[in-house]
Amino acid sequence: MVTAPVQLTDLIVTVAVERPDVLGRLSAAVELSAQLGELGDHLIGHFVDEARRAGASWTDIGESIGVTKQAAQKRFVPRESPDLGKPSLDRYTERARRVVVLARHHARFSERIGTEHLLLGVLDESGGLGARTIAALEAAEGTTRLALLHELDTTSKQRPDPQPFSAHCKKALELAVREALRLGHRFVGTEHVLLGLLAESEGTAARVLAATGVTHPAAEAHVVAEISAAISRAPRPALPGA
Q1: 129: closest CA among 80, 82, 179?
Q2: Domain containing 186: what range?
Q3: What is the pLDDT of residues 129-155, one digit of tens each?
Q4: pTM of the prediction?
């Protein structure tokens, strides 16, 4: 059996340090418990993705986690759907939510919302860390947007209502949450949406980003550095008695 790296005592201390009052601690414990459940789901999802990349069949994966092949596929294979699902968007920042709204706008003549529309949304939210990361890493200014526009299907199609997110797009949004959790962030920002698009690796957005020189390792390094710099610049609370 694998030994959990986090012990109950560690979790109790974490909650106790954050909240001074007993009811506040109880609320924090409930919130942390929900986060741990989500972490567990993404932990399994990470290794399911790894097994698939290594060539494991859905039958093998189902046997490993104690379910049928069909149950494993239903849980881990993203389907086209108009519903992003909760609680994933609950964790999104206002900027990240606007990215999703902008993606819908860019897909207004399409049958579905794809990763290409989501990436355009990231670029349109120019003040977000996602767009700033692309600007810092792309081969030349504006090349990602130009390459992306070249990839768009310009044939006008009947837009269904509700309009579904493509399987690749839904996977990228799921991975955006996983990227935030992996980096220890309690929010999903535009930078995590970008990392999710890069981690998805098979959609139009990932192909365009690769062509313009934006890689997952470089994007993650830039995001971590920018967030660390922002934290260091933030004013520190005065010590008692100072």
Answers
A1: 179
A2: 88-233
A3: 999 999 999 999 999 999 999 988 777
A4: 0.78
